[in-house]
Amino acid sequence: MPQTRALRTRDRALKAGAFEFAQHGYSGTTLTDIARTAGITLGALTFHFATKRALAEAVCLHGRRVTEDETNRVITSSSPALQVIIDITYILIRLLREDDSVRALNRLGRERITSNWHDSWLPHVHALSERAGAEGKISPTSDPLTLTMFATGIVSVVETSILDVACSQTNTPSSVQVEQMWETILRAILPKEVKELPQPGLSRF
Question: From the Swiss-Prot or TrEMBL record, what is one GO molecular function term (predicted)?
C-alpha cells in the first residue's frame, strides 16, 4: 500500500509538472507551483524529484515516449508512406492539443532546456518522404524535402497557435482547415497520373 501511494504521488507530480511547464515555461514555474497544482506537499514532491530540472527531465522523457509510441503505431502500419505522413501530422496535432507532457516537451525544447520535440518525429517524416518518392508518389517537380517541410509546416501552425487565430477570422473549424491544407499540398506534389488522393482527414484531432 505505501508503495502504491508513493507511485500515485509521483504520478500526480509528473502531471502537475507537465501542466505548469506547458503553461508557464521553465523559468515561470516553481516547485511550489507544481506541488500546489498536484495537491501534495513540497516535501512529497522533492522526495520524488529533488530539483526542478529533474522533474522537467522526467516530464520531457514522458512526452517524448508518448510521441514516439503514437507515431510508431502508424509508422509500422501497412499504409503507403504518404498516407502515414498525413496520419502522423494529425497525431502530432492531437498530442499538442491534448497532452500536457508533449506541450511541455515542445515548450522546454524551444526554451533550450531539453532536446527539441521535433527530434522525436521529424527524422521519421523525412524517411517516409524519401520512401514516398521511391514509391513514385511525388511529382518529379517536387522532392522529399519539400514534402517534409510541408508536413512540418502544418504541425508548426498548430504549435504557434497561428491556425486557431486564422480560423477564428473565417469561423472555419481548424480540423477542416488542416484537411484543406493537405488537399492543396497533395494536388501540388502528386504525379499528374494519380487520380485518387490519400485521405487527408483519415485521423481526427
Answer: transcription cis-regulatory region binding
- Cβ distance 74 to 87 under 8 Å? yes
Cα–Cα distance measured from residue 197 to residue 190, given in angstroms and rounded to the nearest whole number: 8
List the domains of the chain with CATH numbers.
Answer: 62-189 (1.10.357)
Res 2 pLDDT > 80: no
Place of cell 524551444: 110
Question: In this structure, what is the dihedral angle of CA atoms 77, 78, 82, 86, given to the nearest 10 degrees?
Answer: -30
- Cα dihedral value 117, 119, 122, 128, nearest 10: -140
DSSP letter string, 30-94: -HHHHHHHHTS-HHHHHHH-SSHHHHHHHHHHHHHHHHHHHHHHHHTSSS-HHHHHHHHHHHHHH
Q: Map grid coordinates 511525388 to a residue.
A: 138
CA dihedral 130, 135, 140, 141 (to 10 degrees): -50
**Comparing C-alpha atoms, which of 145, 140, 153 is closest to residue 182?**
153
pLDDT of residue 195: 65
> Which of 61, 115, 56, 124 is closest to 92 using CA atoms?
124
Task: Assess whether pLDDT exceeds 60 at residue 1.
Answer: no
